[in-house]
Design a protein that fits this description.
Largest sheet: 11 strands, mixed
Strand content: 15-25%
Radius of gyration: 19 Å
Order of helices and strands: EEHEEEEEEEHEHHEHEHHEHEHH
Distance between the termini: 31 Å
CATH topology: Rossmann fold
Length: 360
């Protein structure tokens, strides 16, 4: 394999500068985005462009009063590590590849945060940058959080995820996307949401809003980073389960949201990465999910690295773990979701991009 250092970085393209709805986001906005190449993440706001998932109140709204809060956790003023709470108006935030680089694939990125908050930069924007570098359009999901007062809170993230996939497919033509190549990438609790969507894509958890809701919400593939794969005692992430299901959930509810119990032949092909010393999302749960995929004859690939802990994302991956995005690139290419890439085209991590940000 060629050296991993010094690969050419491409720009990160954000679409426009306004808060828009999907119906207002047309080709003129794409042309504007193509000429607006950015290597920095947005500074003052979480995004310069958000596409609202719902017109009017979101499903499960019961008068809940929320104010979105963005908490900066980074000790380095040059690098964001923001956590979001209080999401009242869920959205998707689009990241388009540089002009001429798009290959038609798209991924809905689901940040983690134990269903308590959204780890938006580390498990959202970083992932979007990697996907853009291999020609994939990324949409970072800013979903509602289940313990913030919504009716049937455990269904709220799934409602947003289903709606987001359907909106991406519904706007595939104008966004330059192949509707048969729309996947998800989820990390930690976002990995649980990804697997939940991959198994409950046809569950009617909200009333249809428009024609997009006639489209399939099934992801064509799943990329999972250290997912909270199960809600079962002993192998779950307890804070995630408490936020999603409450402090004393019934065994039936626990079973409903334990991904390893609901795999079937229609579960999407899956790529998994995890570290053996992850004490937050136990590997026993991930292995159980992987084994269920194999039992159902779902094409899957799992990489369990010796060290790395939990929440490494891309920026905190070190040593052999830095290769996980290269492995994912190769898996996506082998599955036909992206073209085969030469070594010079692969950006295995965003480490160098982050170093550049420090030096600007």
């Amino acid at each position: 394999m060629a050296s991993l250092k010094g690969f050419k970085k491409t720009g990160l393209v954000l679409a426009g500068a306004l808060l828009v709805t999907a119906t207002a986001f047309h080709s003129s906005d794409q042309a504007k985005a193509d000429s607006n190449i950015k290597d920095k993440y947005p500074d003052s706001e979480i995004s310069q462009t958000e596409i609202q998932l719902w017109t009017g109140d979101a499903p499960g709204y019961n008068g809940v009063q929320l104010t979105q809060k963005i908490t900066e956790r980074s000790k380095d003023p040059q690098i964001h590590d923001r956590a979001i709470t209080g999401v009242l108006n869920p959205s998707i935030i689009p990241f388009f590849p540089s002009k001429g680089k798009s290959n038609g694939a798209a991924v809905l990125v689901m940040p983690g945060g134990a269903y308590d908050h959204l780890t938006f930069d580390k498990e959202g924007y970083d992932v979007a940058q990697w996907l853009n570098s291999v020609g994939v359009t990324a949409f970072v999901l800013k979903n509602r959080l289940p313990a913030e007062g919504w009716r049937n809170g455990y269904n709220v993230p799934l409602e947003d995820a289903q709606r987001a996939i359907r909106m991406i497919r519904g706007n595939a033509d104008q966004w330059g996307i192949d509707p048969t190549k729309v996947g998800v990438a989820g990390f930690s609790a976002g990995g649980h949401l990804a697997t939940t969507l991959g198994e409950k894509y046809s569950a009617q958890v909200y009333s249809p809003v428009d024609s997009a809701d006639q489209l399939s919400a099934r992801p064509d593939f799943m990329i999972l980073g250290y997912p909270v794969a199960s809600m079962q005692d002993g192998i779950t992430n307890v804070p995630s389960r408490q936020k999603l299901l409450g402090s004393t959930p019934s065994q039936d509810l626990i079973d409903q949201f334990s991904s390893e119990l609901h795999v079937n032949a229609n579960t999407p092909p899956t790529f998994i990465v995890q570290a053996s010393n992850d004490t937050s999302a136990p590997t026993q749960a991930t292995t159980a999910f992987y084994n269920a995929l194999k039992q159902a004859k779902v094409e899957t690939e799992m990489h369990e690295f010796r060290t790395g802990g939990h929440g490494f994302g891309i920026r905190s991956a070190s040593g052999a773990l830095e290769l996980w995005t290269v492995l994912a690139d190769e898996w996506l290419a082998a599955k036909g979701y992206i073209p085969n890439l030469s070594a010079e085209d692969i950006i295995p991590t965003v480490q160098d991009s982050i170093k550049d940000l420090r030096n600007q």
